[in-house]
């Protein structure tokens, strides 16, 4: 049984110097395990700024997929708080990330979200950088000017089997390499880097980014809210309370999982769960699970959305490989397509959710797939989740709100997210 939450008085962050940090430390210290966070974590702009400082500027953040920048000179820009990051593929096909700021007088270099360029040219005074970030032209600067002292500032970047992560910290968390090594066997067979982007959709949620992530980390709400998504999900695949009323269904589902995983493992597809969402700095979770009915893909009829399968696959029924990373992403890898989600905080009450669907690079739209069918499930689910997040944001703004208990059967991964968040915020405050 969950402990009964202690009735805690609402907390207001103090404007005096040091007051916000002191109050944040108090809120973190008194967080009740197994319960949702107190209202200021979702409402306070001061805590939002602390989130940017201690979470989004210190950890590995998922921002894009490699197929968004397939050729030399292709670029994307990503904004995280006040930081704009330029990601570009260089002439040697390597991915590089830079602060999207000219070394002359600070102009933004690339204003578009996506495009292609030969060199990186500042629109203000035409200072020019190559695709490795080296300053190669700066007119009228005199004979004593040293170009080599004015290259673009680099941002740490890692590509994990087609997934692009950046870290804004001077010294990024070192455990990413271990996570990557463990995840590569799971992700590599899908060959995401050899895909193309079939669709990308951005939605703006009027809610705090943590509510977006908490909502993703459970399917307690799925029945009744996600009819399109649950078509392909087994009823007992997203948690059920043990007991006589559920015993037969749970046992049947566990047997289906065991049989499916044995078959996939024999095919060279790792499937067993790895779960370290709250026990390491770069928290992650993965598992390949069977899909219900036709069992091929997350579509309205559970059949593949794209006739041309990924990688070297010849088998359609490969389940759904889920990969979650703290603090801001989740991904679903199937036999025919990959769908990735990136969560970017904009303010205490506004969050950007960017969803990207990828198919085999040789798949032909209108022949092998249609965008409407490919995106139908998650477009519907994202819109439903947006509404739920916004209802939650409105609720936590009420003076009547107090942290409520999580279900131990269906919301354990929400607790893992909140535990990770609290631990990382405490570490950030300690290091400040």
TrEMBL record:
GO function terms (MF aspect): 2 iron, 2 sulfur cluster binding; dioxygenase activity; iron ion binding
Q: Keywords of this protein's UniProt record, alphabetized?
A: 2Fe-2S, Dioxygenase, Iron, Iron-sulfur, Metal-binding, Oxidoreductase
UniProt keyword Membrane, yes or no: no
Q: Which CDD domains match?
A: RHO_alpha_C_GbcA-like, Rieske_RO_Alpha_N
Name the cofactor(s) required for activity, per the record.
Fe cation
Residue intervals of the Rieske domain: 60-166
| Record keyword Transcription present | no
Family that this chain belongs to:
Belongs to the bacterial ring-hydroxylating dioxygenase alpha subunit family.
- Annotated protein name in UniProt: Aromatic ring-hydroxylating dioxygenase subunit alpha
């Amino acid at each position: 049984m969950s402990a009964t939450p202690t009735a805690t008085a609402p907390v207001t962050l103090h404007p005096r110097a040091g007051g916000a940090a002191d109050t944040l430390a108090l809120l973190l210290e008194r967080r009740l395990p197994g319960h949702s966070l107190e209202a200021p974590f979702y409402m306070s702009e001061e805590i939002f700024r602390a989130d940017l400082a201690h979470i989004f500027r210190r950890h590995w953040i998922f921002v894009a997929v490699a197929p968004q920048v397939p050729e030399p000179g292709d670029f994307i820009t990503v904004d995280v708080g006040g930081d704009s990051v330029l990601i570009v593929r260089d002439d040697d096909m390597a991915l590089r990330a830079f602060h999207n700021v000219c070394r002359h007088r600070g102009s933004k270099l690339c204003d578009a979200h996506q495009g292609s360029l030969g060199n990186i040219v500042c629109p203000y005074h035409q200072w020019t950088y190559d695709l490795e970030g080296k300053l190669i032209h700066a007119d009228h600067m005199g004979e004593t000017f040293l170009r080599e002292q004015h290259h673009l500032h680099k941002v740490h970047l890692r590509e994990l089997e087609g997934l692009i992560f950046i870290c804004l910290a001077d010294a990024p968390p070192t455990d990413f390499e271990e996570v990557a090594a463990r995840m590569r066997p799971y992700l590599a067979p899908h060959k995401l880097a050899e895909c193309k982007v079939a669709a990308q959709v951005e939605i703006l949620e009027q809610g705090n980014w943590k509510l977006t992530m908490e909502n993703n980390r459970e399917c307690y709400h799925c029945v009744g809210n996600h009819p399109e998504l649950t078509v392909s999900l087994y009823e007992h695949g997203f948690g059920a309370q043990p007991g006589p009323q559920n015993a037969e269904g749970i046992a049947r589902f566990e047997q289906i999982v065991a049989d499916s995983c044995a078959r996939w493992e024999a095919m060279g597809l790792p499937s067993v769960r790895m779960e370290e969402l709250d026990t390491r700095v770069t928290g992650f979770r993965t598992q390949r699970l069977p899909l219900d009915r036709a069992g091929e893909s997350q579509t309205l009829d559970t059949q593949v959305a794209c006739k041309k399968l990924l990688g070297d696959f010849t088998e359609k029924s490969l389940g759904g490989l889920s990969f979650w990373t703290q603090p801001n992403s989740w991904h679903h890898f199937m036999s025919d397509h990959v769908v990735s989600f990136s969560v970017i905080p904009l303010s205490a009450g506004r969050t950007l959710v960017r969803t990207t669907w990828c198919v085999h690079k040789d798949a032909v739209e209108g022949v092998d797939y249609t965008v409407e069918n490919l995106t139908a499930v998650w477009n519907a689910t994202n819109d439903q989740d947006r509404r739920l997040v916004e209802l939650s944001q409105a609720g936590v703004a009420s003076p009547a709100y107090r942290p409520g208990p999580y279900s131990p059967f269906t919301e354990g991964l929400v607790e893992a997210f909140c535990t990770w968040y609290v631990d990382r915020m405490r570490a950030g405050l300690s290091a400040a």
